[in-house]
Amino acid sequence: MSESEELELNATLRRIKENDPSLKSYPLADGYDDDDDYIQNMTDEDWEELGRDISNNTHVEDVFLYSGALNDHKMSFFFRGLTRSSSLKYMVLFNDGLSIAGLRSMVSFLQNANNLTYLNLSDNNILAEGFDVMFRALRDSPIEHLNCCNCGIESIVIDNEHAPRHLKELYLLDNNINADGCRGLAKLLQRKDASLTKLYLKNNQIDDNGVEILVSALQNNTSLTGLHLQGNNGISMRGKIMLLKLVNDISSIEATLRSNHTLTYLPLGANDQIIQMHINKSTNINNGHDSLEAGREKVIETQLNSASRAQYADLQGVYQSVYSEINPLHLPEVLSLIGLCNGQGELYIALKSSIAEVISTVDRKECIRRQRDYYLTKAKQLDAELAAIEAAEESIVSLGSESRRLRKEECALSTGLSPNNAA
Question: Which of 77, 129, 320, 419 meets the CB 3.0–4.6 Å disulfide criterion with 48?
Fold first, then answer.
């Protein structure tokens, strides 16, 4: 570092200490000629003093300490001084070789940084334990953007009682997140007050089981607009179809209306062009429409369009006609909608398909009527037969009683008694 550069840096430090309102940012990076010598010569006391000066400053909004500017040891002294801030909004600490020990050093700061909305900890070795410590510390923070790419994170344990309440964007690219990690993330997505809008999971270890967990969590989620899953090679065709069904389930009109209408960006990667094309078609419908409008548009474009529906149905294994679930009384309205939105060609196809369904429905009704009449007639015959049996039984009982009476009278006459005394 030249003498003039050192003087400039010292002047910046003095302005921080003096709370200069014109100073908004403090960048310091190792590995760069301008800063390398100065950083290497900073003592533990220097780091603590710098942290204290930033803590007391009410105007500095951005702090950049990256590419080796810090390590766990320096962190412990820096954050011994920097325990709170009323002005910091943006902090970048990437590629500093930090571990769980370094994360623990900054807990007090994270709990008392009242305006911190962006934190970048990428390219550090914080692992799952460090992520958990940081996440809990950010519970009451205004943090909105959290970047933890390439941090060795596998599983993620989320306690919704101790999770950031305002988090909008979570960057977890290039980690080792698996199905267990997806279970933790699902808790964030299933919260009643879910705030997450973008979730970056590119290049992890997510497989079909992980996809199934995320899809389940997103069924009723209305906050997440972007889910990035490129580079997760464990996701097979089964997992990709689950993601397609998430944004447009073609199995029934009701299922289409219940699909996710919030996601507007769901990239899978360059090798999934067919699935991606259909996903993009559905997410493009979501973009710019509210939930009711998006559901209606999907029904028109993918359920009531024969070519489009055939493609979706083939991918999703759906074989029944859409007209089998439409009440024939509503068909004129449906056919009018098809002609208006999809053209005369589609209307002709719809007429042929729906007439077959109507005829089938009418035939079924007639069959049911005939079966009903048959069983009603059969029931009457059985009732008559049962009545005859019961009448015959009553006759037998009556004859038996008369026979016993006559025998008693004969007995009485033979003994010289009156019939009444014989009793």
Answer: 77
Q: What is the pLDDT of residue 37?
A: 66
Q: Residue 223: helix, strand or coil by DSSP?
A: coil
Predicted pLDDT at 423 = 47
Cα separation of 357 and 321, whole Å? 8
Q: Which helix (H) or strand (E) segment is 26 a member of?
A: strand 25-29
Residue-wise pLDDT for 102-158, tens only, equals 999 999 999 999 999 999 999 999 999 999 999 999 999 999 999 999 999 998 988
E strands of 67-216, at which residues? Answer: 90-92, 118-120, 145-147, 169-171, 198-200
- Output the CA angle 208-210-216, nearest 5 degrees: 100
Which tens digits make up the pLDDT trace of 358-407? 555 555 566 577 778 777 888 888 888 888 888 877 776 666 666 666 66
173 token code pair: 């690219």
CA distances from 3 to 7, 10, 11, 14, 25 (A): 6, 11, 12, 16, 22
At 132, give phi and psi (nearest 5°).
Answer: -65, -45
Q: Where are the beta strands (DSSP E) in 265-411?
A: none
Contacts with 324 (C-beta within 8 Å, 6 or more apart), sequence order: 357
Distance CA 11, CA 15 (A): 6
pLDDT in tens, 248-261: 999 998 999 999 99
Instruction: Identify each DSSP E strand in 30-74 by its residue range.
Output: 62-66
pTM of the complete model = 0.78
Could you give the CA distance from residue 285 to residue 296 in angstroms, rounded to a whole number? 10
What is the rounded distance in angstroms from the CA atom of residue 284 to the CA atom of residue 261? 10
| 252/1 Cα distance (integer angstroms) | 69
